[in-house]
Amino acid sequence: MFLAMNRFKVKLGSEAEFETVWRERDSHLKTVPGFKAFNLLRGPSKEDYTLYASHSVWGSREDFEAWTRSEAFRLAHRSAGGNKPLYVGHPELELFDSVIALSVGDAAA
């Protein structure tokens, strides 16, 4: 399993607009080989921003990398530049390879 996360510092007062952008966009992820799940997470608010993270789960790093080179990726990100006024700074990409994975129904370790 492979996880890709982007952290966004969203300007205070822009949270609803940011969430609407994500809720209404067509990510095209459901058609991409290796895609498993997506979550948009809202974190704590600071003096000038609220922290968000987009969290996608992939079958492998190769699946994720293939998506970043795909037409689906280009379509999903075609208007991303128009959202810059919502952010403090740039989104921060973080990539993770799964080392240990547990889920409901797994036998006790």
Give the overall shape. Answer: globular
What amount of the residues lies in strands?
25-35%
Report Rg: 15 Å
- The secondary-structure element order is EHEEHHE
Q: Please give the count of helices.
A: 3
Largest sheet: 4 strands, antiparallel
Uncertain runs with pLDDT below 50, 5 residues or more? none
Structural class: alpha+beta
| N-C termini distance | 19 Å
Number of strands: 4
Query: What percent of the residues sit in helical stretches (DSSP H or I)?
Result: 10-25%
Mean pLDDT: 89
With strands numbered from the N-terminus, the spatial order across the biggest sheet is 2-3-1-4
Question: How would you describe the overall organization of this protein?
Answer:
This protein is of the alpha+beta class and 109 residues long. The chain is 22% helix and 34% strand. A four-stranded antiparallel β-sheet has the order 2-3-1-4. 7% of the residues are buried. The model has no long low-confidence stretch (mean pLDDT 89). This is Heme-degrading monooxygenase HmoA. Pfam families: ABM (PF03992). GO terms for molecular function: monooxygenase activity. InterPro entries: ABM_dom, Dimeric_a/b-barrel, Heme-degrading_MO.
